Write the structure tokens for this entry.
Amino acid sequence: MLSLPALRVGTLARRGVLGAASIRAAHGHSGHVATQEDMSVPQYYDKRSAPLPDVPYHKELGAEQKALKEKEKGSWKQLSNEEKVALYRLKFNQTFAEMNRPSSEWKTVLGGVFVFFGFTGLFVWWQRIYVFPPKPHTLTDEWKAQQVKRMLDMRMNPIQGFSAKWDYDKSEWKK
């Protein structure tokens, strides 16, 4: 037996309410569908390992840029420095020096690491106060001193161990 929502979807699909156009319009595309780049053709990229890309940075040229490309075919001595830079920028987005310029990304990474350490420290502090039980009495200095005295009185490991380093006649550690 079909449920009521399944019947409602079938009715809406027959009426054309659930068509592709209505779904696109409902999701704010207003008739325009996002296009995907064709990855089978060469793409422009800036890489330090391969500084000469396969295609120019600007594929479609404006009227001023086309005139500049025509002027490029003549003598380069007639071109000004600004025109030479503009011609370079038609082909490349960044210079090799701009690609090698150090970024400030290390500051963000270091800041993130410090924030992580800070939260970790707060978490460990919270655990020590509210989660972990109090330290046992066997970790106090008095207890440890009594334990050492007891081990010496019992002469534990008298040949090469703990008691071998204690001078029983002088009641001090051997030098």
